[in-house]
Amino acid sequence: MVFLIFLLTFFLILSLYFCIKFALIIIKIQDSLEESLDIIDNKYNNLSKILEIPVFYNSPEVKSAINEIEDARDSLLYIANQLTDNLKKSIKEEEEDFD
After folding, report:
1. CB 51 within 8 A of CB 63
2. Of 3, 12, 75, the residue nearest 67 (C-alpha)
3. What total number of domains does the chain contain?
4. Which ranges constitute the DSSP H helices of the chain?
5. What's the pLDDT tens digit per position in 31-66?
6. Cα R_g (the chain), whole angstroms
7. Domain membership of residue 56 as a residue range
């Protein structure tokens, strides 16, 4: 009987160790995602300001460069939306689990 208690205590301590370890990993990932989203938001705003400036040169190279900048801006917006949608879904699922 005492052996069983020691064995269960060992597994309890082991499981607590891994729970805390994985919780810390999740917190670090969440912080990284939040920082990344802030950077993406900043870059998106900068690209939007650049694209508001009118271009008076009709060269195909300039138009191509502007189109690439617009595509990069749209890509940043898409990535930010995908990351936040996944976060919103997981938050909603957690709220439903508590209800």
Report:
1. no
2. 75
3. 1
4. 2-52, 60-98
5. 888 888 888 888 888 888 887 887 777 777 777 888
6. 24
7. 2-98
